[in-house]
Amino acid sequence: MRESIKDKVSIIGTGCTRFAERWDADVEDLIKEAVDEALEDAGVELKDIQAGWIGTGRGSQQVPMGPPSAIIATSSLQTQYIPFTRVENLCCAGQEAVRAAAFGIASKSYDLVLAIGVEKLKDTGYGGLGEMFPGPWQPVYGALGTPPGRYAMAATAYFSKYNLDPQEGKRLLAEISVKSHYYGMRNPKAHLQREITVEEAINAPMICWPLGLYDCCGVTDGASAAVLVPSDEAKAYRDDYVNIKAFSIACGPGWGKEDERYDFTYWRETWEGAKVAYEEAGIKDPRKELSLVELHDCFSIAELIACESMMLCDWGTFREEFTEKRAYYHDGEMPVDVSGGLKSFGHPIGASGAREIEECVKQIQGTVQYPERQIKDFELGLAHNQGGHPGRFVPGICIVGRP
Amino acid sequence: MAGITSFGAYIPMYRMSREILAQVWGGKGKGEKAVACADEDSLTMGVEAARDCLKGVDKNTVDALYFATTTAPYKEKQSASIMAAACDLKDDIVTVDVTDSIRSATVALMMALDAVKAGSARQALVVTADTRLAGPDTRYEGLFGDGAAAFLIGNDDIVVEIEGNTCITSEFVDIWRLEFDKIIRVWEERHCREESYVPYMTRAISAVLEKLKLTVKDMSKAVIFSPDQSMQRDIVKQMKFDPKEQVQDLMFDEVGHTGCALVPMVLVRALQDAKAGDKIITANYGDGVDAIVFKATDKIGKMADRRGIKGYLASKVALPNYGKYLHFRDLMEWEHDLFMERRMALAEIWRHRNFYFRFHGIKCTKCGHIMVPPPNTCIYCQADEKYFEPAPLADARGKLTTYSLDVRSRAVDPPNVLAAVDFHGGGRFFSQMTDRDPDNLQVGMEMELTFRRIHDALGIHNYFWKCRPVRGE
After folding, report:
1. pLDDT at B2 over 90
2. What gap in Å lies between CA B163 and CA B208, rounded to an integer?
3. What is the pLDDT of residue A125?
């Protein structure tokens, strides 16, 4: 008989490296930095960890085609012969590590486990994201289909569907990026710590029309980690532990780009995943009940469409419901990405999952470093990741909250 | 009697004003020349001309394909075989590359005629294209342009009869390239003109007219090859062609000297204006001379829907500067791209060859939807692939559903335009867009398909289809 994961697993510690172009650190250094912080936060020792999962999209890109195993974690941490597994689900990889660790606890196989996410993107020798793993159609059919190229198609389609002229559309996206940079400036671990104006965002160098420089997240190195225990034992570690309320992974059938029914203006996979996660967590009205949504804003347009797809407003109403009401600020009606988001905090593929969860945990514990972005009366936080590209996504959602 | 049953031509969209060359090298520039886009080569341009030629043709009747060029993309690996696939011809045909001489195209035409006459081919497709290069800052740099033409030779429904021909071969050396040469080497032009071009051209033209008991005056048009802008005058004068009425302009000021494809392209241009009964003589040069007399039949009007030279000549975009030209024709040593160098998977291309080369999607017979690339389960009704049948889509048109302009792309000619095209008959193609003006794209615009060289990796030319705004109509 199936049981819900809700309130069975608790997070007692989190850690996160500074997200940046980490020329100083290789992939194993990043892992150790995040894990050391998580263990200290949890007040436990490495020798007591019973099992671990590490999520990474590509790990170290020294070997372009060779994704690493979990040995990158065990050799970094020097754990001694405990179970350790590498998981991969593109940008969901980090959240998959947390999910696998939570299932390890919920199955009662372990009672103290580690989840890690890591990505070292900056060692390839060229800008942008590295080579994707070879899959059907990739080398020639998918040639030059870059992440901004693919997401920008969604922006063009959104503008066209909702009759936004290019300047209106650009301004709508610019407002989102201004908010992301505002919070990045107030987050000492964020990659991009600089505020921008709407005019700067609109007039920034073009990356891929209609997306300019400030509509796109950077390419970032980093790692994040979380320590998980059974909820009924969490009190023994700390009073302000945080419970997992729901997980969902809604892996799409992957052919949206080729499907005439798909118009690029919504994320069907995220919509499906949100429905499952809300039900699991018992959420009826997400905009009212969620205190924070940390979502996958690799591009400004991604934040806009993810908000609509997670039913935080009706289709096509983002401008009215978020921009005009300033709802997405930390003191607004529905705060979104007040960590700075992928856009400003950075997006080392596998590291973003646990990093977003950490933001929710710190908000609940009232320990975000800058009071200017501390959300009051925090109950439930949602972390959303989304691997792939419009039409071909694997989204992951994790909802956490007070016990 | 065997003859031409169809024809077509192709001119790339980009044109470089010779004033651009004058700005770089000095001097004065007159006219412009056609320049193949960065994703084009002789093979892809040949495919374009062939597709123009094959409009409305039953492809099952095509038993042979001859491809004439001096600029084949591979030294070893036949172009005609790739071209046959891209034209979606059947595979039990003879494919031949006829190379190494700028006279190859008319030689291929005569070979095709012989094959059809002998009964070994019902119809034979002759395609020619060239992208020849001359050294920077030479007079030939400005002269040489890019283009293609195609003819179908068969027995029935002849639109142009081939009255007769003559062929003279010569071991004369005037223009040549060695194995690794990208640009031509040239012997002194005066030697070429006096010892080879003029005597051989006049001899061949006289011979074919004598053989057919015709005179120069019987010709409506004369397509007379010329190595450069001036030498043709000697032939016109000696043979007493009327320079105004009879001599078909070689389009050096609009297209440039297209090498192997020059005489065929100019012939297509002449045929697009020809009336039933018009006689046209061609004299082609290179390693000797051949001369052929053609006669338009009363079926010539059937060719009205060919884009040909007239259609493609009018559809053009100015190449903005010499740097673009260097990029398009790969005339410098460029920064090495670590990212692109491995992007090739021959085994996968081969598995899906009907998609990559022929652009066959699939149609699900259960729900009726068309899909590209072919999935192994229907993406609409999840039916198994046993319900699939091939859906040839290379000739399909559709509307632009959405797009983006990737300014930072690794494309040789950024912005790289990603596009989703919904075909009118069903099916969605997620695609790169070529031959586009980035400032003039709108959701909903009409798109067609074109066969292009996507990128090179591991020494392999990756050919595949792109979309483009409809051209040349």
Report:
1. yes
2. 10
3. 75
How many H-runs (helices) and E-runs (strands) does chain A carry?
Answer: 13, 11
Q: Would you say residue A134 has pLDDT above 60?
A: no
Closest CB to A140: pick one of B369, B403, B462: B462
What gap in Å lies between CA A168 and CA A357, rounded to an integer?
A: 33
Size of interface A-B (CB pairs under 8 A): 145
pLDDT score of A129 = 75
Q: Does A126 touch chain B (CB under 8 A)?
A: yes
The b-or-e profile of A315-345 (16+ CB within 10 A means b, else e) is ebebbebbbeeebbbbeeebbbbbbbbbbbb
Task: With cut-offs at 50, 70 and 90, classify the pLDDT of residue A67.
Answer: low
**pLDDT single digits (tens) A162-189:** 999 999 999 999 999 999 999 999 999 9
Averaged confidence pLDDT in chain A: 94
CB of A189 within 8 A of CB of A368? no
Considering only residues 141 to 180 of chain A, which have any Cβ-Cβ distance to chain B shorter than 8 Å? Answer: 141, 143-146, 148-157, 160
pLDDT of B416 above 90: yes
Range 264-323 of A in CB contact (< 8 A) with B: 264
Q: Quick check: B462 contacting A, CB < 8 Å?
A: yes
CA nearest neighbour of A48 among A108, A103, A111, A99: A111
**Banded pLDDT at B94 (limits 50, 70, 90):** very high
B347 touches A at CB < 8 Å:
no
Longest Cα–Cα distance of chain B, Å, equals 73
Interchain CB distance below 8 Å, A149 and B406? yes
Q: Helix or strand or coil: residue A374?
A: coil
Say yes or no to pLDDT of A270 above 70: yes
What is the DSSP track for A257-299?
A: GG-TT--SSS-HHHHHHHHHHHHHHT-S-HHHHEEEEE---SB
SS3 (DSSP) at A350: helix
pTM of the model as a whole: 0.91
Tokens 């969901």 -> residue? A92
Structure tokens at A47: 């020798």
Mean pLDDT for chain B overall: 96
Contact, A281 vs A245, CB < 8 A? yes
How far apart are the C-alpha atoms of B300 and B142, rounded to whole Å? 34
The residues, ordered by sequence, that sit 6+ positions from B54 with a Cβ below 8 Å of its Cβ are B6, B8, B62, B87, B125, B150, B152
Q: Rounded distance, CA A73 to CA A64, Å? A: 19
For the CA atoms of B41, B45, B46, B47, what is the dihedral angle to 10 degrees?
A: 110
Give the residue ranges of DSSP H helices in A366-399.
none
> Shortest CB distance from A149 goes to which of B343, B409, B455?
B409
B408 closest CB neighbour out of A136, A207, A263: A207
Residue B172 CB-density burial (10 A; 0-12 exposed, 13-18 middle, 19+ buried): middle
Q: Give the DSSP letter string of B9-26.
A: EE--SEEEEHHHHHHHH-
* Residue pair A287/A280 in contact by the 8 Å Cβ criterion: no
